[in-house]
Amino acid sequence: MAGQWDIFCAVVDNYGDIGVTLRLARQLVAEQGVAVRLWVDDLRSLQPLCPATSLTEPQQWLEGVEVRAWTVEATADVVPGEVVIEAFACELPATFIAAMAAQPRPPLWLNLEYLSAEDWVAGCHALPSPQPSGLRKFFFFPGFTEGTGGLLREGDLLACRDALQADVAARTAFLERLGVTLQAGARLISLFAYENTGLGEWLEAMAGGEEAVQLLVPQGRIQAQLQDWLGVAAMQPGQVWQRGCLQVQLLSFMEQGDYDRLLWCCDFNAVRGEDSFVRAQWAARPLLWHIYQQAEDAHWDKLEAFLGLYVEGLSEPAALALLGLWRAWNAGQGMGPAWQVLQPHWLELAEHARQWSARKAAYPDLATALAQFYRNSLSCAA
C-alpha cells in the first residue's frame, strides 16, 4: 500500500506518546509499505528510544521513517499525506488543517486515542466528528476486544519472543550485553515505574522472602526512591546491591528493541503507562502495571476496566491475589502482604499470561487495522 502518511506527536511527559508513535511509524513503513512523516515537538524525548536521533537536524530518516521537528513554520508549506494521524488529541496547526481541506481528495484524518479497556471504547471507535474546516475527523481507539483498533504488534514480534525465550544461551548472551550476570535459580524481575510510595514495602518483601530475586531497573523516575531505600547517594548503571534475598541492579535506559528483549527474559515485569504496558503483555509473563495518574482519580476506572478483562479465566484465589497486588501498587501501600499472597499462584499466573497474549494476538494489530480502515475509506469514497 503506497502513499504518504503524517503522524503528529506532542510529547507530554515520559516516553509513552513518542514510544507508541515511533513503533507505529516504523511498522507502517516496514509492513504496510507507506512513507511516514513523524512530526515530533521534542526530539530530546525521541533520542533515548532511538539513539541515532539528531537533536539539531529538523529533517532526518530513522529506520525508514522521516522524522521532522514539529514547528508551525516547518508544516507551513508541506502537502499533507493521504492519512493524517494526530496522536492522543494533539492539536494540528491551523495552516496544516487548511492545507488538508484544500486537497482535491482530503486526507483521512484520524485521532489516535489513548489505550483503554473501558466498555464505551468499542462504541466510540471509528466514529466521525465533523470539523469547522468541513473535514471529518475519526476517533481511532486501540483496544483489547473485538470492535476496537487492536494493539501495536509487529508481524514477527511473537516469533522473535518465542525464539529468545526458548534459547537459554541467547538469553544469557543478551543479558550479559546489558551487564547482567544471571544468578542460578533467581527469579528475574524488571521494574519500570513512576514514583511510588509502595516501592520500599515491596523491596522489603522481596529482600526478606525465601526465594532469590534479581531486580533489573532501567533508569527512570523510580530511581530516586530506589536510592533512598538502598541508602546510597547516587546510582550508576551497572552497579549491583544485595539486600537479603534481593539483588538490585540499575540498567542504562535502552532503545525499544532491547527493552522488549529484557521483558522477554524476565519472569515478572513491572511496567508503567501505555507503551511498556502493551509490550509486557506480548512478553507473555506475569506483569504489574503502574497506570498514569489522572485528575479526580479517573485512572482507577481504567485500571479496573482492564483488570476485569485480564482476570477472566483465573481461579478465584489467583484472581484475588492479582487484583490485590495491582491495587496495592497503584495505591502505593500494602505491597508487602499483597506480594506474599501472590506467591502460591505463580505458575497459574505464568500460564495465564501466555494464554492472554495468544488471545490478544488473534485480533488484528493496530497498524494493520489502521491500514484497513484507510482502504475502507477509499472504497466508500469511490
TrEMBL record:
Signal peptide: none annotated. It holds the Pfam family EarP. One of its GO terms (molecular function) is protein-arginine rhamnosyltransferase activity. Keywords: Glycosyltransferase, Transferase. It catalyses: dTDP-beta-L-rhamnose + L-arginyl-[protein] = N(omega)-(alpha-L-rhamnosyl)-L-arginyl-[protein] + dTDP + H(+). The keyword Glycosyltransferase applies. Belongs to the glycosyltransferase 104 family. Protein-arginine rhamnosyltransferase that catalyzes the transfer of a single rhamnose to elongation factor P (EF-P) on 'Lys-32', a modification required for EF-P-dependent rescue of polyproline stalled ribosomes. This is Protein-arginine rhamnosyltransferase. It comes from Pseudomonas fluvialis. The lineage of its organism: Bacteria, Pseudomonadati, Pseudomonadota, Gammaproteobacteria, Pseudomonadales.
